[in-house]
């Protein structure tokens, strides 16, 4: 799998939510997401422009992350990468690079910063319990 930039990822995420989609559909989705985000982060309030999105779409096509079909005068784009496979690859890469392949220091860091809520803790306990049942 090739590397995907943050901006390319946002375009890909819009396609994962709704595909096939035209460039205009993707632009509208990205701009709706930016406006509906409700954050005060200046980076989240950016407006996506047609030329930028089309450049990102072309990059993703070249990286074989998405495909396209011409329909009349428009191109319809679809993801070739599955979200789950991409997420697993990226999270594994992060853990390898930052934590020498060990997950516990990552979780411990979040716990120390009070970034884990009760739902997170319940989900982690459930994952551990399921793993223990399947790996005894």
Would you spell out the secondary-structure blueprint of this structure?
Layout: H1 6-17, E1 21-22, H2 23-36, H3 50-62, E2 66-71, E3 74-79, H4 83-99, H5 104-112, H6 118-134
Antiparallel strand pairs: 1-3, 2-3
Termini separation (Å)? 33 Å
| Strand ordering within the main sheet | 1-3-2
Q: What is the residue-mean pLDDT, rounded to a whole number?
A: 88
Overall structural class, as computed from helix and strand content, comes to mainly alpha
User: Uncertain runs with pLDDT below 50, 5 residues or more?
Assistant: 39-43
Number of helices, counting only DSSP H or I runs of 4 residues or more:
6
Order of helices and strands: HEHHEEHHH
The radius of gyration computed from the alpha-carbon positions, rounded to a whole number of angstroms, is 19 Å
Helix content: 55-70%
Largest sheet: 3 strands, antiparallel
Number of strands: 3
Overall 3D shape: elongated
- The percent range for strand residues is 5-15%
């Amino acid at each position: 799998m090739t590397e995907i930039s943050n901006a390319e990822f946002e375009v890909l995420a819009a396609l994962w939510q709704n595909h096939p989609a035209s460039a205009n559909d993707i632009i509208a989705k990205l701009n709706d997401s930016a406006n509906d985000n409700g954050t005060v982060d200046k980076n989240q309030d950016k407006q996506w422009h047609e030329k930028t999105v089309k450049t990102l779409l072309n990059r993703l096509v070249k990286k074989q992350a998405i495909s396209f079909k011409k329909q009349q005068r428009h191109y319809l784009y679809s993801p070739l990468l599955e979200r789950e496979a991409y997420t697993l690859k990226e999270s594994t890469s992060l853990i390898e690079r930052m934590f020498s392949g060990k997950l516990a220091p990552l979780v411990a860091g979040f716990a120390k910063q009070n970034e884990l809520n009760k739902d997170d803790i319940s989900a982690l306990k459930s994952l551990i319990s399921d793993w223990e049942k399947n790996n005894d």
